[in-house]
Write a structure and sequence with these properties.
2 domains, two-stranded antiparallel ribbon, 2 strands, 2% strand
Length: 251
């Protein structure tokens, strides 16, 4: 009887510890974590369990659109990512946080949908530019999923986010074409990357594109592109063509 009681008590203790694991983690971090400078910005203080769990959105002291504990989680867990990758992950975290709302206007839904698809395109085009698309995209997608789970870490948040995302059932999004090409050459504008890094990625994409197909077809596509978007990216591709080719684009 005594042995059974001890076993039962241990079982109850383990269940209690499991259910309190979040409280223990947040309390330990709140008491011991020292904010640090990350990518030129000072982290917010680590919030306590009550701040994080007792509201839908939680604390965001530095007003960057990411819940404070999620921001610190990203900085510590994924610090080995390069700056471009971190910026895209931050953008994804902001988007996930913005889905925690009870009501949303039609304008907000359209903006959210466009931003959501833009982030997916950014991750895809960046991954493709590395030459190891499958490996890199899977890595970034796994990180994005981990951040979604960390952000929607209560039943309330999970349900509210699910109801919000259900509003996009049957929505579609157009990608590729001239718009997709424009995004490839301007990831600094659409994905938040550094301009120099964006140009490097654009040049790698162009080099691969121009290595296949006929030059006349590429020139025709570039003519259509410049007619629509202007000549702002010509510095990235003019070295692949002769003066005669450039004159054709100027007509």
């Amino acid at each position: 009887m005594k042995k059974t009681l001890i076993s039962f008590s241990i079982f109850i203790l383990l269940i209690t510890l499991y259910r309190c694991r979040d409280f223990i983690y947040y309390t330990r971090m709140w008491l011991t974590y020292e904010p640090k400078s990350f990518m030129g910005n000072m982290e917010p203080p680590f919030p306590n369990w009550f701040e994080v769990m007792w509201s839908l959105k939680g604390p965001d002291r530095n007003k960057n659109g990411i819940r404070d504990d999620v921001e610190i989680y990203i900085n510590n867990e994924f610090k080995d990512l390069n700056e471009s990758e971190l910026i895209m992950i931050y953008n994804a975290a902001v988007l996930v946080q913005s889905s925690l709302r009870y009501r949303a206007s039609e304008d907000f839904l359209e903006e959210y949908w466009a931003e959501s698809n833009m982030i997916t395109e950014c991750l895809g085009k960046y991954s493709s530019s590395t030459g190891k698309f499958d490996k890199k995209f899977k890595e970034l997608n796994t990180i994005e999923q981990a951040i979604e789970n960390r952000t929607r870490n209560t039943l309330l948040r999970s349900n509210v986010s699910r109801l919000f995302l259900n509003k996009f059932h049957m929505w579609s999004y157009e990608s590729g074409g001239l718009r997709g090409f424009h995004m490839q050459l301007n990831m600094w504008k659409y994905c938040g990357l550094d301009r120099k890094e964006s140009d490097k990625i654009g040049i790698r994409i162009l080099k691969k594109k121009f290595s296949m197909g006929r030059k006349s077809n590429h020139l025709s596509n570039l003519k259509q592109y410049e007619d629509k978007y202007g000549k702002g990216n010509r510095n990235l591709y003019e070295k692949y063509f002769t003066r005669k080719d450039i004159n054709y684009l100027d007509k």
